[in-house]
């Protein structure tokens, strides 16, 4: 092999390894890794519109068993660490020594499938870590047609054994139209299965589908020739009732907000620090010495034998209607998740409950700044995430008093129906 050929081969190997590494980490961490290792791929992804869906159906079980009371367990990412709340996840039971089932997604009619350039999934899994094919779980897609073909997207080879592990996996179309994966009912399926017999049960807290779309992805809405074209509206015709899943709006725009106030329930913050320290991202991975007045340091404490820290950020978002998706962009420094976990949650005023936006990332290095963006897709039309005063509330909390943590940024972004 010539020197030029050797250099080219090495370059290809490095690029392939970067893609492999990016596929094995979760959420924003994968995007950041691609941005560092493969800037062209990152730029390509940034040009595409991201539209994500949750399933509106119970898991279709082919072999094995899923308890009917867990039918809604895949719709929200609720669980972290070793948390175990029965109705918040789906337990895939290998009663016959094997499991196979399908997670079904309804694809809106107005999406032009030819404009789908990539698709991805976020999976939150708890179970054994696969070693080779032993205890191996897979998520696959099926390219339909005369000769259906399975394509693996995810497996549990890089999870933490019996700890909730979030993974983000993407696949390029490679010239194949996405329509080849969608059936005549406009449904897309992820196939979940064990590879070998006698595999342990596994828990799934969340499985979503994200499409990355090129310009022109929305099909035009037909209108009578003698009437003006109506403004885009949500695709659901009947008014949603309690418990219904929200449909994806035909058009979305994003509005972002910084915290207006900070409240402490348990613990304390650094002296002379204020909520203004969360308004602007000042620190990066190379920042060794924090600018004290530009960050907020959160100290947990032990009260009556209960460890932890609980802090609230209030965002004045004003009068908004039907938010479809929420993003929390935050810059964190503290202990790794192995020793201490911090979680961000959004308050549902209607249900008096909290939904998880994100947690300190597994990729974080101890006391090194790491930026993260976590997404939550609203699903229940009866939920209320903004009160009558126009306030959305986020909780930042830990169940450990081991150490403090620091934030220098906490911006809440909402995707709303219609154009900006």
From TrEMBL:
Keywords from the UniProt entry: Signal
Secretion signal span: 1-18
UniProt domain Glycosyl-hydrolase 114-associated: residue ranges: 74-206, 281-409
Domain of life from the UniProt record: Eukaryota
Bias-annotated ranges (Low complexity): 221-234
Residue span of region Disordered: 221-241
Name listed for the protein in its UniProt record: Glycosyl-hydrolase 114-associated domain-containing protein
Lineage of the species this protein comes from: Eukaryota, Sar, Stramenopiles, Bigyra, Labyrinthulomycetes
């Amino acid at each position: 092999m010539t020197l030029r050929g050797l250099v080219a081969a090495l370059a290809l190997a490095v690029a392939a390894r970067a893609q492999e590494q990016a596929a094995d980490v979760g959420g924003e961490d994968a995007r950041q890794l691609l941005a560092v290792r493969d800037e062209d791929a990152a730029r390509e992804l940034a040009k595409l519109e991201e539209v994500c869906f949750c399933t509106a159906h119970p898991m279709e079980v082919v072999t094995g068993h899923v308890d009917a009371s867990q039918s809604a367990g895949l719709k929200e990412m609720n669980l972290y660490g070793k948390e175990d709340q029965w109705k918040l996840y789906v337990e895939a039971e290998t009663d016959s020594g094997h499991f196979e089932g399908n997670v079904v997604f309804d694809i809106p009619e107005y999406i032009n499938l030819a404009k789908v350039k990539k698709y991805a999934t976020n999976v939150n899994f708890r179970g054994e870590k696969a070693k080779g094919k032993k205890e191996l779980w897979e998520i696959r897609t099926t390219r339909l047609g005369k000769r259906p073909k399975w394509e693996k997207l995810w497996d549990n080879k890089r999870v933490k054994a019996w700890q909730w592990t979030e993974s983000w996996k993407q696949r390029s179309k490679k010239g194949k139209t996405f329509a080849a994966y969608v059936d005549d009912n406009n449904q897309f399926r992820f196939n979940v299965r064990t590879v070998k017999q006698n595999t342990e049960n596994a828990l799934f807290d969340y499985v979503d589908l994200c499409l990355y779309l090129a310009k022109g992805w929305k099909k035009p809405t037909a209108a009578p020739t003698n009437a003006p074209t109506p403004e885009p509206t949500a695709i659901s015709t009947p008014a949603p009732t309690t418990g219904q899943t929200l449909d994806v709006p035909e058009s979305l725009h994003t509005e972002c907000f910084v915290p207006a106030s900070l409240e402490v329930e348990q613990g304390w913050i650094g002296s002379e620090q204020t909520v203004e320290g969360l308004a602007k991202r000042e620190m990066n991975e190379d920042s060794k010495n924090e600018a004290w007045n530009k960050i907020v340091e959160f100290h947990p404490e032990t009260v009556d034998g209960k460890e932890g820290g609980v802090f609230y950020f209030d965002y004045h978002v004003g009068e908004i209607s039907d938010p479809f998706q929420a993003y929390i962009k935050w810059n964190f420094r503290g202990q790794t998740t192995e020793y201490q976990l911090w979680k961000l949650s959004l308050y549902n005023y209607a249900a008096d409950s909290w939904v998880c936006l994100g947690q300190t990332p597994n990729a974080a290095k101890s006391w090194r700044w790491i930026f993260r963006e976590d997404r939550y897709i609203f699903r229940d039309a009866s939920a209320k995430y903004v009160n009558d005063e126009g306030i959305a509330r986020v909780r930042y909390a830990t169940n450990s008093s081991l150490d403090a943590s620091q934030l220098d940024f906490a911006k809440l972004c909402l995707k709303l129906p219609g154009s900006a």
